[in-house]
Design a protein that fits this description.
Blueprint: H1 4-14, E1 20-29, E2 41-42, E3 44-57, E4 62-67, E5 72-77, H2 87-101, E6 109-115, H3 125-140, H4 147-161, H5 169-176, E7 181-186, E8 192-196, E9 202-212, H6 216-237, H7 249-254, H8 261-286, H9 289-306, H10 312-322, E10 327-332, E11 338-346, H11 350-365, E12 370-373, E13 381-384
Parallel strand pairs: 4-6
Antiparallel strand pairs: 1-3, 1-13, 2-7, 3-6, 4-5, 7-8, 9-11, 9-12, 10-11
Helix pairs in contact: 2-3, 2-4, 3-4, 3-5, 4-5, 6-8, 8-9, 10-11
The structure holds alpha-D-galactopyranose.
Alpha-D-galactopyranose binds at residues 33-34, 36-37, 124, 166-167, 169-170, 334-335.
Length: 385
Amino acid sequence: MNTLENIASAFRDKFSSQPLLVQGCGRINIIGEHTDYNEGFVLPASINKYIYFAIAENGTNECHFHALDINDSYQFSLDNIKKSDKGWANYLMGILDQLQQEDILLEGVDVVFGGDLPIGSGMSSSAALEAGFALGICSLFNLQKSRQELAQLAHRSSNNFLGIPSGIMDQFASLLGQRGQAIKLDCRSLQYEYVQLDLKDYELLLINTGVSHALANSAYKDRVRECREGAEAVAQKFEGIQSLRDVSLEQLEACREDLTAVVYQRCRYVIEENERLHQALHLLTNGEMEALGELLLRTHEGLSKAYEVSCRELDFLVELAKGHEGVAGARMMGGGFGGCTLNLVKKSAKEDFLKYVKKEYYRAFSIQAEHYELEIVDGTDIVRG
Ligand code: GLA
């Protein structure tokens, strides 16, 4: 775990220039999981878990990256940006690659980064990396880009440079988050509005399974493909269908014969999840926390049984939450196959719940589950000029 001060001081030890400091935010998502790449709706918020950057231009054509958390370095020339076998470096190089695609010429940069945002935990450390670096580079070189444009650029980098067919939720949430608010984002038009996260007597807690299964990447790609396949089949019968966003449950039923059982259940989950998101907004506005918790449980059920992106550890944590009277609901969060559960817990029951969950989880998996108390904060930003 590194702090902003550690990062700044490691930079000064390695390089002689005065760096720009940036903090890239992680995110949570209240509801609307695996809907973004189907042009649906999501409800994320940026959180107080960060990747910190110290960045300075170096007047050469070379870039030097140092990942302090893992004490690893990578160096390359701007004339030769290509995917490397260092996964972490690719997230940063992808941003530079996208800028080059726009014919934006840059000088080399020296970068040290690290933070307190655990990797593979479902809080999107990858988006924090992309967003923080993109904002830092833009500020350093005075590029006139809005936060939304930066989110789109980072998203293109994920899709095109890294080859991950993800949606735009994570980058958007990291760059456009605001204190105390969730973002209701339409992933097709990118229209968004802020929604006050007033949870009454409840709070959100993350519990980390501590596992990150290797399946995640290939299964994610499979889900994207299955959803496209479903939307294309429905489009054969009905007009105006570009993605699952446009498909109603009735239309899906009418095409059931044309779909494999697996594609049908994936599509059904996505359509229902978009509906749940709209219900959740209504419940949030009315302060109906118990009912909101129920929706989270239904989302988990869908992700686990129909979408099949959960795992034993996540299901176990959600079952524990379900059985505790101080918890309104819980679900796995993010891409799946590990990472955290999101729990809507009564403030007064928090200590008891955590003690119970940690004991039972350890008993079942011999893993000490970590938990994170969340603050919803302003998104990725420059810390000091
Ligand atoms: C990952 C992806 C997002 C989104 C979620 C699932 O975090 O990066 O685009 O698809 O999974 O909701």
